Amino acid sequence: MDENGHESAGQEFARWLKPGGCIVLLLIFIAVLAVCLVSGKNPIPGYKPPQTSEYYSQHLDELQTELEENVFPVIGGVNESHIQDGKLYVTLEGSTFAVTRSAILRYYDENLFVFVDSADK
Questions:
Q1: Parallel/antiparallel/unpaired status of strands 87-92 and 78-84
Q2: DSSP secondary structure, 26-81, as one string
């Protein structure tokens, strides 16, 4: 309360809610926050890489084959891929660059790749 005996809007709202209402609001906030943090569309439902990123770092040719057969056709937006200097270079369409890149990185380590935007070529 201020010097005139008036409550602030927050104080009035908390008094109106009472402790039970505050607990309910807190639980709703926690649920919404949890959904926001763990949600995210799975680009390829049910897909699991057949090998680990450590394995693929030594076998980039197998990674390229796996991606070209099972990942690129599903997510789209990939123009081409090739191996160079110990990395898999993946050329992505400029309009879907960020989405396609994040879909690939959901399953594989970023250190395996160099992503190239076709708009930059």
A1: antiparallel
A2: HHHHHHHHHHHHH----SSTT---SS-HHHHHH-HHHHHHHIIIIIHHHH--EEEE
Instruction: Decide if pLDDT at 100 tops 80.
Output: yes
Summarised one tens digit per residue, pLDDT across range 35-81 is 777 766 788 888 999 999 999 999 999 999 999 999 999 999 999 99
Longest alpha-carbon distance in the chain: 76
**Buried b vs exposed e over 6-39: b needs ≥16 C-beta within 10 Å?**
eeeeeeeeeeeeeeeeeeeeeeeeeeeeeeeeee
Q: Are 109 and 70 in contact (CB under 8 A)?
A: no
Instruction: State the Cα–Cα distance between residues 109 and 106, nearest whole angstrom.
Output: 8
Q: How confident is the model at residue 105 (pLDDT cuts 50, 70, 90)?
A: very high
Q: Which of 64, 60, 74, 69 is nearest to 103 (CA)?
A: 74
Q: What is the value of pTM for the model shown? A: 0.66
DSSP H or E segment with residue 17: helix 9-38
